[in-house]
Amino acid sequence: MKVKVIPYLVLFMAILYIFFIPAEPQGVKIFFKIIPMLLIIYFAFVIKQTDNKQSILLLIGLFFCMLGDGLLIWFVVGLTAFLIGHLFYTASFLTSRHFSWLRASMALPIGLYSYIIAGELVKALQSSGQTSLIIPIIAYVCVISIMFWTAIMSGKIAAMFGSGLFVISDSILAWNKFVASLPFAGELIMITYYNAQFLIAYSLKKSESTDYETNKNEQISSSIS
Asked: Residue 32: which domain range?
């Protein structure tokens, strides 16, 4: 299969799942849900430069997130699979980190956002009597926030946008499930989710996801020469 064809297959299968596959039978729904992720994993495997630590960790993260897709019908089990996936994403992004004070400072708005949304979720869980979910959800919010920050620290644009979309997708999911119903929540969750995973996978393509300093240095070198 040609690499250029895979993104179109991901798009087609994602649209098919989001807008056309009925909710029942549940097994069929789950089957079609994970097909885009299987294609994304294959895409990441094909475009990766080498079998280095960064690509191996990211591929494992994609695999655990795919498990989370199928297991989310048992919420805590699926949440745990996603949490493990984010830990592998974090480890992968850390292998290519490039420190800058600007990127490091992004920990502040990310932390503030996480604190606010976690607080609202805890209130909703307490009022609905689902207190057993408080610790798992707080742990998940912390882990995905760290993952987002390490994606920013990696300097990889695709990883940054992908991780940001992942945060948005999970925020919509959590708010819709525990706080208040949102219009078109299901569609918004999956659209942002599939885009997030594709961009995270795409970050393995070195020529398309170089860090900011590398691009800047190349521009300076060109202007001098």
From this structure: 3-214
